[in-house]
Amino acid sequence: MSTITATNEIDKHQYKKTPLTTYDLGWILLNIGMAIGAGTVVVPVQIGLKGLWVFVAAFLIAYPATYMLQNLYMKTLSESDICEDYSNIISQYLGKNWGMMLGILYFIMLVHGMFIYSTAIIYDSASYLNTFGVTDSVLSDSVAYTLIVLTALIFVASRGEQLLFKVSGPLVVVKVSIIVLLGVIMIPHWDFNNIKAFPGIGDFARDVLLTIPFAFFSAVFIQILNPMNIAYRKREENKEIATYKAIRVHRIAYITLISIILFFSFSFSLSITYEQALEAFNLNISALAMAAKVIPGELVHIMTVLLNVSAVVTAFFGIYLGFQEAVKGILVNIIQRFIPEERINHKVLGVSVYVFIVLLLTFWVSLGFSVVIFFHIASPLYGIVSCLIPCYLVYRVQKLHKFKGLQAQCVLIFGLLLVISPFFKFFE
Predict the structure, then answer these.
(1) Where is the protein localized (predicted)?
(2) What is the set of domains in the chain, with CATH numbers?
(3) Dist CA 258 CA 147 (whole Å)
(4) pLDDT in tens, 373-425
(5) Does position 4 have pLDDT exceeding 70, yes or no?
(6) 321: closest CA among 147, 114, 149, 74?
(7) What does the pLDDT read at residue 250?
């Protein structure tokens, strides 16, 4: 027995020395690309509306909690014997009915992300084309424009992770470089008069709870973690090695991401006024699209365009992997109740999913729903799927009891905050 234990310890010690590969780097970039999207470029608008002090408190709560919840989420998924789609993994723990129900919740969470990024892509790209004189009108009202852009993006995103590495990798490098450089360039435009006075305690507590979802959405990339976990499990024969590599990628990506976001958010928020933030909110555009309108300097304009486009496009690509996996998982769960899984035509299923997603997103964008308000509405959903469900699994499933402790308790509390935060909108 002692010999076996010693061998396991040696093996564990050895795989922890595994160097990073280009494949690992591809996932690190894709994770960062997933996170730096609509949430990141909308955060300065929320800071401008609520004030810097509110955001400081919100990120001190949200950023550590976001890391813990994603880490716990990955660990609960990685313990499954067979690693496929989210619905299948939950079915292994709690049965098919639970898998179906929670798979639908997971699907709705991903739908929210797809709605956010598709809206941001269409509205911001149309705003830029109009701002720089390429078009005489704003094309976001055109169904044909929306359909063409989304069809092209989804075609690329549906080709698989290797193509996404090739397309998203350079875009992520570009946008990380730009976001750091843009933060530096904005320094001469800092105006400390943009820092609002510290609000009353009641208003402060309310606004912190309202801003927590924005801090959370600026750093979260939970939507891509299950596809990444599945990819590593398929690539590595040893489950322990696959889990270690996936968690290591998550840790590196998150630390890098937070460093970038904090610098960008503070620098940018000091450069726009409350009135400019309010205008961006009313126009349903990001802070970067607003910057292209109000901040002088052609270089800043070009950089904000490149950053915003690359940010939302790579985030869109990143979330599509999880979205596609969720749609197929739910459909397979339903279909195999009537026919054996080996008889399912996965090629026809894949084409059907592609057409469905294009039409769904085109319809959604045509509604013109506010991105900022949509962040508030979806907060409870993310609280349930990314916090409460993993905590429930930890306390319900015997093999996951080892994850009980302070981290699970913090994730549970943060999940409850995400669930209740939108209701404080009624007290504004």
Answers:
(1) Cell inner membrane
(2) 20-427 (1.20.1740.10)
(3) 34
(4) 666 667 788 888 888 888 888 888 888 888 888 889 999 998 898 888 777 66
(5) no
(6) 114
(7) 93
User: Mind spelling out the 3-state secondary structure of 284-329?
Assistant: CCCHHHHHHHHCCCHHHHHHHHHHHHHHHHHHHHHHHHHHHHHHHH
Q: Cβ neighbours of residue 205 under 8 Å, at least 6 residues apart?
A: none
> Could you tell me the two tokens for 278?
């309010």
* Token digits of residue 116: 């956010």
Instruction: Give the DSSP letter string of 208-236.
Output: HHHHHHHHHHHH--GGGHHHHHHHHHHH-
8 A C-beta contact, residue 179 and residue 267: no
pLDDT at 291: 62
* DSSP code string of 367-395: HT--HHHHHHHHHHHHHIIIIIHHHHHHH
- The CB-side HSE value for 395 (13 A sphere, CA atoms) comes to 12
State the DSSP code for 339.
S
Using CA atoms, how far apart are residues 39 and 120, in angstroms rounded to an integer? Answer: 10
User: CA dist 424 to 55, 109, 384, 420, Å?
Assistant: 16, 21, 18, 7
| pLDDT tens by residue, 267-311 | 877 777 777 777 766 665 666 666 666 566 676 667 767 777 777
Q: How many residues does the chain have?
A: 428
Q: Is the dihedral of CA 164, 169, 174, 175 positive or negative?
A: positive
Q: What is the model's pTM? A: 0.72
Q: Give whole-number Cα distances, 127 to 268, 295, 419, in Å.
A: 20, 15, 33
Residue 305: alpha-carbon gap to chain centroid: 20
The encoded tokens of residue 371 equal 């991105």
Q: Is the pLDDT of residue 252 over 90?
A: yes
Q: Of 205, 199, 230, 229, which is closest to residue 427 (Cα–Cα)?
A: 205
Q: Determine which helix (DSSP H) or strand (DSSP E) holds 149, and give its type and residue range.
A: helix 143-157
The token pair that represents 161 in the structure block: 């992770």
Which residues, other chains included, contact 413 with Cβ-Cβ below 8 Å and sequence gap of 6+? none
The dihedral sign for the CA sequence 393, 395, 397, 403: positive
Taking all residues of the chain, what is their mean pLDDT, rounded to a whole number?
A: 77
Neighbours of 374 (CB within 10 A): 16
